[in-house]
Amino acid sequence: MNSISRRRFLKIGAATAGVAATAGALSKFTQQAVKISSSVPEKGVYTIPTYCDLCFWKCNAIATVKDGKLWKIEGNPIDPMSKGRLCPRGTGGIGSYYDPDRLRKPLMRKNNRGQEEWVEVTWDEAFTFIADKMNKIKSEYGPEAVALFSHGIGGNFFKHLMKAYGTPNLAAPSFAQCRGPRDAGFRLTFGEDVGSPERTDIENSKFLVLIGSHLGENMHNTQVQEFATAIERGTKLLVVDPRHSVAASKADWWFPIKPGTDIALILAWINVIVNEELYDKVYIDKYAIGLDKLKKTVSNNTPEWAYPITGIKAELIRETAREMARYKPATLIHPGRHVTWYGDDSQRSRAIAILNALMGSWGRKGGFFSPVSMDIASYPYPEFPHSEKGKVDNPDKKYPFAHETITTGIREATISGKPYPVKGWFVYATNLIFTLPNEDETIKAIQNLDLMVVVETQPSEITGWADVVLPEATYLERYDDINVEFFKEPFISIRQPVLEPAFETKPGWWMAKKLSEKLGLEKYFPWNNIEEYLDTRLKNSGYSLEQLKKAGLIKGDKQPIYFEEGVTPEFPTPSGKIELYSEQLAAYGLDPVPRYRKHEEPPPGYYRLLFGRSPVHSFGRTQSNPILFDMMKENEVWINKFIADKLELKSGDYVILVNQDGVRSNKVKVKATERIRQDCVYIVHGFGHTSKGFVRSRGLGASDNQLVTKYKIDPIMGGTAQHLNFVTIERAA
């Protein structure tokens, strides 16, 4: 995907300047009048603070209402994270309200799962059906037989409901399908993970290394702003990526590495740094253990060894290792976000963590800061029931360092019935068809269920397999839980309704509370409404709901965030130090220091399928947003120009991608370019929708997830590697 030109970026701003930009969508929004929140007058210009829900970053925003109509959304200038600026997705947030395809009423399945044929029902009918099924499952299999998949802070009240019901099986795809290997690798090294948002001090870095991290395309607001600041003031940038990404266009060095060989490159850097004693000696002597064992293990991983593996010349590996060391401790090797690539991903992330440790960057300015937060009281709930069976996802600790629930572990148990049956799924705001690898396995698991409930704002593919669909109000129409952020500055923020819920949609907190009453669990929801819940927590912490509603966020006192400023270095590892050599891994028969192992190559005529993000879409969740749809209607497949010429293809032609198992994609437009290696192709994730509910976006572009039929499981934490699929290219009819 190309970077956004200034002209296109301004188009987003113009599109959100008024409701007129969404007139086409609004005309399809039926005759129902847009209802502004009861706290906002119908005349004049008023602003209402909230925080965004277009991605997990939760940037603070200000919605402007003009004469009773939603006008625009901008960044909140007092927000330490967004600094008053929203990304293109956040700026287009009003499109989520005016989305003509959004869900409107509770639905129950009419015929077989997957046929997308529905009967509209009342909320009471939907809740009665769900409660009856849940009670039956509980009596026959126990409460653990119901699992929750959720994404985002909006799922908090459903997590609370599931804990009250008695199940420990609560999972988010963001762990096993995204960041989990990174978190495991850093925990094994420093005792802590990187967090969300990541604790990267990009703006103060002097040397920044991006390994498969597409800043500028992966639009994490704070990081992109800090990245721009760093580049402007002359930070040295090294980008390791098979594709010449937007970030690579800003780089001092671009390494078009052979896919699957990143560990070899990192080990060669480590080899140079330890053998030439370029590491931070004072830092390592004081805070780390295992240097001698690390040095011995990587003794053969020279740049000359790495060159034929990676395709990166030995002199460049040695030069960049020395440059990293030159700028320590303000050298930051970015940990990435979506890191489930090849099955050894925890070890690759651990290699990155070790390299950062040698630079002395953990806890140091320009490296990784120590995040701070405010103390907000929890609500005084009764104690949850104890589960006798425990979690279903990781029997016998097969994946010993999985510190969160594994989604695909729940799916496997749902298929096999082992270690015990799973008969009910609740799915909140996550399209499992697009997030879990191997769609057929997901569908097979669903067919084993007695109940599947999906809570969504839009008719995503997973809704088509539900028994009951509960339409949630968008983030502009609801309260959610208090956001207690961990960042450079401590603050809390609130999401509050700008508009009344349209149609018959309801906020998630209301659904969870009403369902608790049907299940006889009302004691776990003792508050009368969400305002009472929020105000209780805030008053017990010395604040108030009215105070927070007015400003949108409240900042705490500034605190030190670097070791040199007074933060006490603590490493919650077994040794209490940074572990360059991991006895924890060795105890499980796993490599205590990362090792390179060769991965499968594409067969002749096939290319490795890589995928990434778009700056104007959030995964597959925003393609029906009328503003963001206008910015990017379909994805493209990047094909090296030499290969395209060989196949007699040019940019703009349509092709079909066929994977190694014969699965065929929708037609997708070619982008013939020299900015990608010849042995791989690349597409943006989230397109190729098949749901009947998506009127405009259905069938546009190709779905990478549909082609991800082969995956490998990380033995350390259970993550699912997805860059193991190969495709051949056919011209579309």
Brief synopsis:
It contains 24 helices and 27 strands. It is of the alpha/beta class and 733 residues long. Helix 6 runs parallel beside helix 18 (508-518), helix 9 (262-275) packs parallel to helix 14 and helix 12 packs across helix 13.
Structure overview:
The protein has 24 helices and 27 strands. The chain is an alpha/beta fold and 733 residues long. It folds into three domains: 107-175 and 384-475 and 505-540, Rossmann fold (3-Layer(aba) Sandwich), CATH 3.40.50; 177-369 and 562-587, 3-Layer(aba) Sandwich (Dimethylsulfoxide Reductase, domain 2), CATH 3.40.228; 607-731, Barwin-like endoglucanases. The model is unreliable at 1-33 (pLDDT under 50).
CA gyration radius, whole angstroms: 25 Å
CATH superfamily of the largest domain: Dimethylsulfoxide Reductase, domain 2
Shape: globular
Number of domains: 3
Q: How is the main sheet built?
A: 7 strands, mixed
Percent range of helical residues: 25-40%
Q: Predict the CATH topology of the largest domain.
A: Dimethylsulfoxide Reductase, domain 2
Outline the low-pLDDT stretches: 1-33
User: How many angstroms separate the termini?
Assistant: 24 Å
Mean pLDDT over all positions: 94
